[in-house]
Amino acid sequence: MKHLLPVLTVVIALLAVWYIACIPMNVKEVLTTAERAGVPIDPPSAAERRDMGHLALVLRNTDALGGSWSQDRARLPSPHQITAELWKSTWEEEVNGRRGIVRSGSLSNRSLIYHGWITLSATFVGFLIGAGLGVLLAVGIVHSRVMDMSVMPWAIISQTIPIVALAPMIIVVLYSVGINGLIPKAIISAYLSFFPVVVGMVKGLRAPDHMQLDLLKTYNATKSQTFWKLRLPSSVPYLFTSLKIGIAASLVGAIVGELPVQRGGLGARMLGGSYYGQTEQIWAALFVAAGMAALLVWLIGWLEKRTLTRMGMLT
Amino acid sequence: MILVVLAFVFWIAAWGLNGYLANGPFAKQPWVSIAVPAIFGITILVCWELIVRGAGVPAVILPPPTQIASTLVANLDVIWGDFVQTFIKGALSGYLIGCGAGFLLAILVDRYQFLRKGLLPVGNFMAALPIVGTAPILVMWFGFDWQSKAAVVVIMVFFPMLVNTVAGLRDTTAMQRDLMRTYGAGYFQTLFKLRLPAAMPFIFNGLKITTTLALIGAIVAEFFGSPTRGMGFRISTSVGQLALDMVWAEIVAAAIAGSLFYGAVTFLEQRVTFWHPSQRAKQ
To answer: What is the ipTM score, two decimals?
Structure first.
């Protein structure tokens, strides 16, 4: 808790900067609105204002800026507008809306709960596939020298290339063979979480040093006994570290996978918002995505803590 | 059908050769550690080619590697233009600005304990977020050209760089700092002569992680809107035209660019941190 005060200070400072930044970012639209309401504006014609700097406009019209934090479709919506949008597109939409779960019995396709769930389910399925295959490949790599020498360099190189670029192609190709919905997105998620897990898990399975391996040899332990009793337990901390990276990557994969096909999900909400200039919608989707990422990483961290405590590796 | 069978035969033969090289009498030779992954890569390409041609997979689903290679060579000027737009203008400028800003803020944060305690948890949190999601907003602010891509890259690389540099600056022992104090060294002398050199392995770790992030940011940002060139633009439009050989050619180009970028930073790291145990072990 000793971090609470500094963290709060930083967060409040960030919010303050945000509110101040709203003034120059939104000044042109705000002045146009004020002009329509009959307030005198310093350069009276919109054409003159268009070519002026944002800060100069702010300084010359200090008394007409009241709308900076309530502008519709603002270039930078203020935090309370985004909070209102979040509330509106979750609770309001589901409980009071015509399409909401209370009235219609199914989640509204306008609510962030619905879109968030689409993204989250693809993330989960993809992450489970990717992490599972990653662990299996890592076990193979540790036990077979051929696999180690053939596959490992490629697994490391693949971390330096932007795999996300494959996403639109995977979606469209799978769509053309008749697979759509959750599976293509899950495949991208799996692909992104696969390599971090392989690399981390191999490192973990190799973590036992010579002394420990020699001890098991003097016990006359078989290869599988060495694996289950020494290698696997000592790989657990490494596994969880790479799972945290993997699940964050999975979420990015699911969001990017939703861009080419507009069939729901947070990525679709963001792209739709940017097409129609609905900035609050983009920001709200972004915040839900951020919250989900934090939740997922925290979930893995919680599992890590519990597992390590039960194993006696964390005191 | 014969080609598909041939692919399996080739696969088994190559696997056998690799097994012999990895476990046989040459296993300790240095060239084997390059030959084995190379043979594996070639095997994948050959099997891909044979299976795609043998089973008659249409080119709109998976083009064979030879077709991708010929597309790559035939469109080299287009791909070079995309590379300049996305990598040099978007990714590289954003990378330099973002890493520079992260580094400078890290030095400032390190100086004040209050800032460190407050900013580090926030930075760690931000580093785990799907920051690519800010791309539509930044495209709206900075326009369709490379400036918006550079802005996405700046935000993506900033936090990993900040967190790594701060961790590195704390990586001196009390003994070392005491020694500097007995020399009567001031803050800046200690910073430049002890703490920054000691932080270099961490800084380079941050620089290496962020190379991939920079390319990802620049490419994904182009999916949200770009001028009529750029790797992300070419990928998304070629997918729309079902010109998958062009998509694969762009991906090959992006992969080469990413690996070279990473390799360049690694090369620099070896030059700068030659004294570190992890580098000395290799020599």
So the answer is: 0.80
